Q: What sequence folds into this?
C-alpha cells in the first residue's frame, strides 16, 4: 500500500514539475482603458496559439501603474514581464538600459507599417524598445448643431484667436452650454499636456538649447493669457478640477460647444450609449497661433519588456500578438471596426471598413501624422517630446508648473506671477540636476 | 447631580445625531446607488436619485473581468493574519508597560506612536529592496508582516489604556495563588480585557482591510487584496464611475457586514474602560 501511495505521489510530483516546465507565466501590467480591457477578454486567442504561455493581468489606475512599474524597473524587482508604458517613459528607460530591445517580433510583424511619428517615439538609436498598442494626438471636437445655429463655418485650420471668438458666440451658461471645455486640472499629463501644445503654437518651448527654462519670454505669456482668458471666461465653472474624464462627461451631456483633447475621445463622444450628442459632433485639427508646429500632442501606450526579465522570448511573442495587424482584425471580428485600437498602424487608415466605421479616422490620422516629437517647436530645442520633455526631471517640473498655471486660471495669481514662479522653480530644479 | 434632559433637548439631540449619521453614510449610499446606474447616468448633471434605469450590468462586468473571491480571500487573510500576529506582540508589550512601567514608558509609547507620523512613501524603496532580496514581493506573509508592524503602535496604545484600568491587586492575588507569568496573562488578564481586546482586533482588521499604499505597492497578483481590485477600475480615459462603484460596493460589503454585527462590541470597547 505504501509503495502504491509513494508511486502515486512521485507521479503527481513529476506531473507537477513537467507542467511547471511547460508553462511560462507572463505577468502583464496594464492601464485600465477600454482597449486594454478588450485585449484581456481576447486572451484566449493568444493562449490557444501559445499553449505553453499563460497570462496574468495586473490592471491599475494610470498614476498607480506609473509608480508601480517605475519602482519595479528601477529596483529590478522583476514583478512584471510586460509593462504598459507611455511615450514619456520609453526614451528615458531605453537610455538607462532598463528596457529589452524588441528585436524578435516575428517575420510577419511588419514594423514598417507602424506610424512613423509613433515609431520614432518608442525607438532609441534606431532600435524599437516598446511596441505601440494604441496612439493618440489631440484635436478639436465641436457641436455641429450649435455651430450651425450660430452660423459658424470652419474653413481651414482655426487659430486660437478665432477659437476665442467662436467660444464667445457659443457660450450660453444660462442654457447650460459653455463655449469651450479644456483641461484645467493640474498635472504634467493633465493641464500641461494642453498648455504645452498651446505654448508650442505660440512659439514657446520648455527649454532653450542650453536647457534653461523660457517662461520669461513673450511666447509663454501670450499662450497663458489666451488659456486663462478662453477657459476662465468661456469655459465651465470650476474648470481647475476638470481633466479628460470630467470634460468627457460635460461634452457627452451636451454642455460644451467645443472640446480640445485626445483623439481617442472621438470614439466615446460618437458612441450613442455614452453620449447624448453622438450624432452632432464634428472634428477638426487643434488650433494654431503663430505656428502650427507642435500645436497637437502625441501620446501612445506601449508594451515593453524590463531588462533582465527571464521570459523575454515569451514576452516578445505576446507583444507581437497584441500589437500586430492580425490583432486589429481579431478585435474587428469580435467587437467591430470602431473598437479597434487606433493610432498605431498606417494600414488601419487605408482600410475602407475602418474608415466607414470611424468617422473621425481622417482627423485622427492627420493629427498623429503632423505631430513630431523631435521637431515640435518653432525654435530649436534640446529635448524629445511634443507636450513633455523626455527627461527624468520633467514629471516633477511639469506638475509644479501645472499647479502654478492652474492657480492663474483660478485667479489666485496673475499670469505674470504664475510664469515667474514657473521660471524660478524650473530653473532651480534644472540647476540642481546639473544641466547647467 | 445629574441634569435631567428635557424632551426638546432630547429631540434636537436626536435630530442632530441623525443628520450627522446621514452625512457620514451618504457617500456609501451614493456609491451603492451609482453602482446600479449606467456609465452615462452615473455622470449626468443634475444627478438622478431614484428615477433612472436600474441595471446590474456593472456587477456582471466586474464579475466577468475580475476574480473577486481571490482578492477578497487575500483581504481576509491579510487583515486577520496581521491582527493575530500583532495581538501576540501587543498584549505582551502592553502588559509590560501597564504593570511594570519605568520612567521611560511614556516616552517609549510616544515614540512608538510617532512612527505612524512618517509618510510611508519615504521608506518605500528600502522596504521594496528588502522584499525583493528576501523574495517577499507579492507574498501574503510579507504583507502580513508589514501590516502588523504598521498597526502595532495603535494596538499597543489601545491595549495599554485598557490594561491600565485593571487593578494591579488582582494580578498580584493571582501571583500569590501561584500563577506563573503566562498563566497570569492568559487566565487572569486576558479574560478581564476581552472587550478591549475585541475592539482592538476589530479596529485593526478594519485598518488592515482598508490599507492601500503597501498593499498596492508590494503586490502584483498572488497576494493582491481588494484595494488592488478597486484600483483596477479607475480609468484615465473613459467613463468608469459606475463600474468603480460596483467594485467598491463589493469590496466594502464584507467589512460593512462585520462592522454592522459587531458595532455594539466595537462601540463599547472604544468608549468604556476594561472594568467599568
A:
Amino acid at each position: 500500500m505504501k509503495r502504491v501511495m509513494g508511486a502515486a505521489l512521485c507521479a503527481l510530483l513529476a506531473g507537477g514539475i513537467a507542467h511547471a516546465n511547460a508553462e511560462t507565466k507572463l505577468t502583464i501590467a496594464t492601464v485600465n482603458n477600454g482597449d486594454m480591457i478588450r485585449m484581456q477578454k481576447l486572451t484566449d486567442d493568444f493562449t490557444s496559439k501559445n499553449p505553453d504561455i499563460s497570462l496574468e493581468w495586473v490592471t491599475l489606475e494610470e498614476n498607480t501603474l506609473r509608480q508601480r512599474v517605475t519602482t519595479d524597473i528601477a529596483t529590478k524587482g522583476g514583478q512584471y514581464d510586460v509593462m504598459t508604458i507611455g511615450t514619456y517613459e520609453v526614451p528615458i528607460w531605453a537610455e538607462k538600459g532598463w528596457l529589452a530591445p524588441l528585436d524578435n517580433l516575428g517575420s510577419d510583424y511588419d514594423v514598417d507599417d507602424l506610424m512613423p511619428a509613433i515609431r520614432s517615439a518608442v525607438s532609441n538609436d534606431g532600435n524599437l524598445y516598446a511596441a505601440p498598442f494604441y496612439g493618440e494626438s489631440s484635436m478639436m471636437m465641436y457641436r455641429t448643431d450649435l455651430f450651425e445655429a450660430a452660423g459658424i463655418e470652419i474653413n481651414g485650420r482655426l487659430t486660437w484667436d478665432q477659437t476665442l471668438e467662436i467660444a464667445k458666440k457659443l457660450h450660453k451658461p444660462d442654457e447650460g452650454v459653455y463655449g469651450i471645455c479644456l483641461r484645467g486640472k493640474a498635472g504634467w499629463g493633465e493641464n500641461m499636456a494642453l498648455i504645452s501644445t498651446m505654448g508650442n503654437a505660440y512659439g514657446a518651448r520648455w527649454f532653450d538649447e542650453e536647457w534653461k527654462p523660457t517662461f520669461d519670454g513673450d511666447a509663454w505669456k501670450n499662450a497663458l493669457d489666451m488659456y486663462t482668458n478662453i477657459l476662465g471666461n468661456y469655459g465651465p465653472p470650476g474648470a481647475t478640477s476638470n481633466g479628460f474624464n470630467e470634460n468627457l462627461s460635460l461634452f457627452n451631456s451636451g454642455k460644451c460647444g467645443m472640446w480640445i483633447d485626445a483623439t481617442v475621445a472621438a470614439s466615446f463622444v460618437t458612441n450613442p450609449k455614452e453620449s447624448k450628442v453622438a450624432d452632432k459632433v464634428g472634428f477638426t485639427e487643434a488650433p494654431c497661433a503663430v505656428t502650427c508646429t507642435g500645436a497637437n500632442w502625441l501620446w501612445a501606450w506601449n508594451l515593453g519588456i524590463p531588462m533582465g526579465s527571464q521570459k523575454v522570448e515569451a514576452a516578445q511573442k505576446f507583444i507581437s500578438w497584441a500589437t500586430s495587424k492580425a490583432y486589429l482584425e481579431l478585435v474587428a471580428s469580435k467587437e467591430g471596426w470602431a473598437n479597434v485600437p487606433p493610432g498605431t498602424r498606417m494600414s488601419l487608415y487605408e482600410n475602407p471598413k475602418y474608415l466607414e466605421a470611424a468617422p473621425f479616422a481622417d482627423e485622427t490620422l492627420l493629427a498623429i501624422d503632423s505631430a513630431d516629437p523631435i521637431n515640435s517647436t518653432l525654435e530649436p530645442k534640446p529635448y524629445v517630446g511634443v507636450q513633455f520633455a523626455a527627461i527624468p526631471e520633467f514629471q516633477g517640473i511639469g506638475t509644479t508648473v501645472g499647479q502654478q498655471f492652474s492657480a492663474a486660471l483660478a485667479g489666485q495669481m496673475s499670469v505674470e506671477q504664475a510664469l515667474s514662479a514657473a521660471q524660478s522653480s524650473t530653473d532651480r530644479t534644472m540647476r540642481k540636476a546639473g544641466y547647467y | 447631580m445629574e441634569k435631567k434632559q428635557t424632551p426638546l433637548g432630547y429631540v434636537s439631540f436626536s435630530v442632530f445625531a441623525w443628520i450627522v449619521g446621514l452625512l457620514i453614510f451618504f457617500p456609501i449610499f451614493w456609491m451603492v446607488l451609482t453602482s446600479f446606474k449606467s456609465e452615462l447616468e452615473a455622470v449626468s448633471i443634475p444627478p438622478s436619485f431614484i428615477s433612472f434605469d436600474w441595471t446590474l450590468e456593472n456587477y456582471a462586468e466586474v464579475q466577468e473581468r475580475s476574480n473577486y473571491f481571490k482578492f477578497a480571500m487575500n483581504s481576509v487573510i491579510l487583515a486577520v493574519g496581521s491582527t493575530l500576529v500583532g495581538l501576540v506582540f501587543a498584549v505582551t508589550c502592553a502588559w509590560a508597560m501597564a504593570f511594570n512601567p519605568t520612567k521611560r514608558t511614556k516616552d517609549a509609547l510616544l515614540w512608538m506612536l510617532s512612527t505612524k507620523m512618517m509618510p510611508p512613501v519615504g521608506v518605500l524603496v528600502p522596504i521594496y529592496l528588502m522584499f525583493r532580496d528576501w523574495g517577499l514581493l507579492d507574498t501574503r506573509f510579507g504583507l502580513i508582516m508589514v501590516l502588523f508592524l504598521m498597526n502595532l503602535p495603535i494596538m499597543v496604545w489601545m491595549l495599554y489604556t485598557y490594561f491600565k484600568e485593571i487593578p494591579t491587586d488582582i494580578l498580584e492575588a493571582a501571583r500569590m495563588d501561584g500563577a506563573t507569568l503566562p498563566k497570569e496573562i492568559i487566565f487572569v488578564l486576558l479574560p478581564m480585557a476581552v472587550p478591549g481586546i475585541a475592539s482592538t482586533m476589530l479596529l485593526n482588521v478594519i485598518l488592515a482591510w482598508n490599507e492601500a499604499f503597501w498593499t498596492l505597492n508590494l503586490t502584483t497578483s498572488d497576494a493582491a487584496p481588494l484595494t488592488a481590485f478597486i484600483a483596477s477600475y479607475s480609468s484615465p480615459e473613459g467613463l468608469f464611475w459606475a463600474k468603480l462603484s460596483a467594485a467598491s460596493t463589493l469590496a466594502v460589503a464584507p467589512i460593512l457586514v462585520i462592522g454592522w454585527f459587531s458595532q455594539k462590541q466595537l462601540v463599547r470597547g472604544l468608549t468604556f474602560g476594561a472594568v467599568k
The interface with chain A takes residues 38-40, 43-45, 65, 124-125, 128-129, 132, 137-138, 216-217, 220-221, 224, 228, 231-240 of chain B (CB under 8 Å).
